[in-house]
Amino acid sequence: MASQTQGIQQLLAAEKKAAEKVAEARKRKARRLKQAKDEATEEIEKFRQERERAFKEFEAKHMGSREGVAAKIDADIRVKLADMDRAIQTRKDPFIQEILQYVYNISPEVHKNYNHK
Fold first, then answer.
1. Beta carbons within 8 Å of 110's beta carbon, 6+ residues apart
2. pLDDT per residue over 82-107, tens digit each?
3. Looking at the keywords, is ATP-binding present (predicted)?
4. Which residues of the chain have pLDDT under 50?
């Protein structure tokens, strides 16, 4: 009977040792997965930064800086406003004269739909 108990004790010890090995293997696997995830996150961040840097270079090369674009738009607006002001100044007096002619030359007429009974 002692040999049976000893055999059972050995089986229990072997089972405990196997459970510890399985637990350790699971921990190693979890560490490897976490490490792989961290490495992937770091690689993704590097890729994102590289693409953003390339985009900013492309944008600067093809569009200029944002301040340059804004300054160009402001300059174009000023030129157009100056052109409008010149056009208004050259056409203002003849336009006012034409309007005054309509006001001064009123010819009273009876409307064509008016029926006098």
1. 116
2. 999 999 999 999 999 999 998 898 88
3. no
4. none
